[in-house]
Amino acid sequence: MGETVRYTYRLRPGATARAALLGEWGRCRWLWNEAVHQYKTGRKPTFGGLSKLLTEARARSSWLRDGSQVAQQQTLRTYALALQHSFRVKGRGRPRVKRLKDTLPSLEYTTRGFSIRDRRLRLPGGVSVPVVWSRELPADPTSVRVYQDTLGYWYASFVMCRDTTPAPEVEGAIGVDWGVTTTATTTDPVYDLPHHGHRKRCAAELAKLQRRMSRRRRPRGVKPSNGYLRAKRQAAKVAKKAARQNIHDARVWAKKVVDNHALIAVEDFKPKFLARSRMARKAADAAIGAAKRELVERGSRAGRKVVLVPPAYTTMTCSQCGTRTKNRLGLGVRVFRCDTCGHTACRDRNAARTILATAERDRAGADDVRHAITSLQDGARVRSEPEIPRLPAVGKR
């Protein structure tokens, strides 16, 4: 049994290779913006239609012919998939124009467009880039994405199918409730993920660098100074350091949870709305989305049973008797008290136990990532969507 994985490596392109990659990105970005324009004019572009337009454009323009047809086709394919996804997902916006000043380069190549020889990445146009092989590839890659990050570093992300070894069988179950004070509260306090506050520790240094950027900013249309670019790079480095620390903590915590539990009940929490609240900065520092994504993906790869439980009424339901309180609990109330059975527990700990009880009671699901209803009192099942086996929440938290 195989699984599709990504292996990412650092690239060290020279001046010639860097110029070639940026030139290729300029062509692909122009094609993306042209596809967006096709949609805005009332047409319904598909990948087949866009491919015909690409063939005609390459026949007319020598500038496009100088680039890789594989990378250009992959750009149009990515646009067509993004457009289809925007129609299927409610609230998903249509693909937008990629502006030069706020879009990072990203190129995709299939097996026809790249090769690995002499431990170097060979791309169309005679581009040869040294790769920092931090580890060996487990199989032959089927595609690669070459991209640049905010610090100006180049990376190559290879996609391949590797053989998987089944994780050792374990017993036990755990429920996970997300929060801001504590990023992840579980049914077992040993597996809690505390809020480390990496971004908060970097906030003072980041604010200092941003003020320096503001002082050195030149009027629009004037080339930025070297001092401004240096301050911008330093600010990006500080922000990226905090993000990497959050990702590292999430990976270590997820591995610890997955290695010791066969059933993982996760609150299907959407932290996007927190960005419009007063807790936006602390929610971003907690990085709930990154921790949740890492836990679900690692649990699925290990063959564990992962159940996504909607957050509706998990805080208001008693984990002992299943009784739901009549009034909502404010965020200032940190202790849950049940008026029926007298059970008293930490608010988040009680929610984690409710999530686990819901997952153990409901056995419907597919593909090892299952979705359960929330209320312990409601036994009726809700019909899931045909494409995504997700049971919608029965109310607001």
From TrEMBL:
Top-level taxon of the source organism: Bacteria
Pfam families with a match to the protein in the record: Cas12f1-like_TNB (PF07282), OrfB_IS605 (PF01385)
Residue ranges occupied by any Probable transposase IS891/IS1136/IS1341 domain in the UniProt entry: 162-270
Keyword flag Nuclease: yes
InterPro entries membership: Cas12f1-like_TNB (IPR010095), Transposase (IPR001959)
Region (Disordered) location: 378-397
Transmembrane segments: none
Residue ranges occupied by any Cas12f1-like TNB domain in the UniProt entry: 299-355
Keywords: DNA recombination, DNA-binding, Endonuclease, Hydrolase, Nuclease, Transposition
GO-annotated molecular function: endonuclease activity
Family: In the C-terminal section; belongs to the transposase 35 family.
NCBIfam families attached to this UniProt entry: guided_TnpB
Protein's name according to its UniProt entry: RNA-guided endonuclease InsQ/TnpB family protein
Annotated organism of origin: Plantactinospora solaniradicis
